[in-house]
């Protein structure tokens, strides 16, 4: 079972003192058991110290909604990442790193900076984006910026070889782990259903907010705000450059410079920037 594999692997890694301090960047393809292992490591670490968790899997998020990098600090053993209270989120704008490598890099680094002030050990769970040249460039850049103590490579059969070859001599310790043999691959339909449920949970107690577009910066791809705006996800960013929430556009009136956005309860007067994403969601009432 994947759970037993994660327990045994976590015990071995911690007994060797590989994950007890500093940042640990966990890499691996989709459905290799990365998150299950990260959860088990965090539960055991939290027995003795606060442990920071950064969930960078923007398509299958457990901390915060999909399209975001979320973070939390576990002060004690927990039942899973989705049971933790998010400390914050950073909007990437899509459910895949493809086309959003800069946004994902910035989000991971931003979250790491915040978490480092609250936890000695930090686990960074990542999406299964490992098989292309851009993927290698992404993780080489993240390593360069964060300087993790350990890179934990969860592999089926050496598929991370090119990425790991580019990390030699960087100062981080590379630890290769054979993935769980019985992890079941999720179908596209299962992944989509999970995202929809996470979005519905996030927007469950939301309300409509009116924002004068003349009072905020709008960051969007060229011409992207001229079409298909209802249901479009946006990041709602404050003056400190942190995302207070994500929202779903209800209406976007260019002529009157007024946007109506469904989002969780927040002080809308503190929002200084709207970041327009590339995902449209079907949320009842949005």
Characterization of this structure:
By secondary structure, this protein is an alpha/beta fold. It has helices at residues 2-15, 34-45, 101-115, 133-146, 161-165, 188-202, and strands spanning 22-28, 51-55, 68-74, 88-91, 121-125, 150-155, 173-178, 207-212, 217-219, 232-238, 243-253, 258-263, 271-280. It folds into two domains: 2-178, P-loop containing nucleotide triphosphate hydrolases (Rossmann fold, 3-Layer(aba) Sandwich); 206-280, Elongation Factor Tu (Ef-tu), domain 3 (Beta Barrel), CATH 2.40.30. The protein is 26% helix and 29% strand. The protein has a seven-stranded mixed β-sheet with strand order 4-3-2-5-1-6-7, sandwiched between helices. A six-stranded mixed β-sheet has the order 8-12-11-10-13-9, with no helix packed on it. Strand 6, helix 5 and strand 7 form a beta-alpha-beta unit. Helix 1 (2-15) crosses helix 2 (34-45). The protein is globular, with a radius of gyration of 19 Å. The N and C termini lie far apart (40 Å). The mean pLDDT is 93.
**Overall number of strands:** 13
For the record, the CATH class of the largest domain is Alpha Beta
Summarize model confidence as the mean pLDDT.
93
Gross morphology: globular
Here the CATH topology of the largest domain equals: Rossmann fold
Which strand-content bin applies to the residues? Answer: 25-35%
Uncertain ranges: none
Euclidean distance between termini CA atoms:
40 Å
The side-by-side strand order for the widest beta sheet comes to 4-3-2-5-1-6-7
Rg over CA atoms, rounded to whole Å, is 19 Å
Label the structural class: alpha/beta
CATH superfamily of the largest domain: P-loop containing nucleotide triphosphate hydrolases
- Could you spell the SSE succession in H and E letters? HEHEEEHEHEHEHEEEEEE
Count of domain modules: 2
Helix content: 25-40%
Number of helices, where a helix is a run of at least 4 consecutive DSSP H or I residues? 6
Biggest sheet: strands, sense, closure?
7 strands, mixed
In CATH, the architecture of the largest domain is 3-Layer(aba) Sandwich
């Amino acid at each position: 079972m994947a759970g037993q594999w994660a327990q045994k692997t976590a015990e071995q890694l911690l007994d060797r003192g590989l994950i007890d301090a500093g940042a640990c960047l966990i890499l691996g393809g989709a459905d290799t058991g990365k998150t299950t292992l990260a959860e088990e490591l965090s539960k055991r670490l939290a027995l003795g110290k606060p442990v920071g968790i950064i969930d960078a899997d923007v398509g299958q998020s457990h901390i915060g909604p999909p399209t975001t990098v979320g973070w939390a600090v576990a002060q004690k053993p927990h039942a899973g990442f989705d049971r933790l209270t998010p400390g914050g989120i950073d909007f990437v704008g899509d459910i895949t790193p493809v086309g959003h490598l800069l946004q994902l890099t910035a989000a991971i680094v931003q979250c790491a900076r915040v978490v480092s002030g609250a936890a000695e050990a930090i686990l960074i769970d990542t999406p299964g984006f490992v098989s292309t040249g851009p993927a290698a460039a992404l993780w080489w850049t993240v390593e360069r910026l964060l300087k993790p103590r350990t890179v934990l490579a969860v592999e089926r059969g050496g598929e991370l070889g090119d990425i790991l070859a580019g990390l030699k001599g960087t100062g981080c310790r590379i630890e290769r782990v054979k993935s769980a043999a019985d992890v079941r691959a999720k179908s596209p339909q299962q992944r989509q259903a999970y995202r929809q449920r996470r979005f519905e949970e996030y927007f469950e107690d939301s309300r409509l907010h009116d924002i004068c577009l003349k009072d905020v910066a709008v960051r969007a791809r060229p011409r992207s705000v001229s079409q298909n705006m209802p249901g479009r996800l946006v990041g709602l960013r404050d003056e400190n450059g942190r995302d207070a929430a994500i929202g779903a556009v209800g209406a976007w009136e260019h002529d009157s410079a007024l946007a109506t956005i469904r989002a969780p309860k927040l002080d809308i007067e503190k929002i200084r920037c709207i970041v327009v994403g590339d995902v449209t969601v079907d949320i009842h009432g949005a």
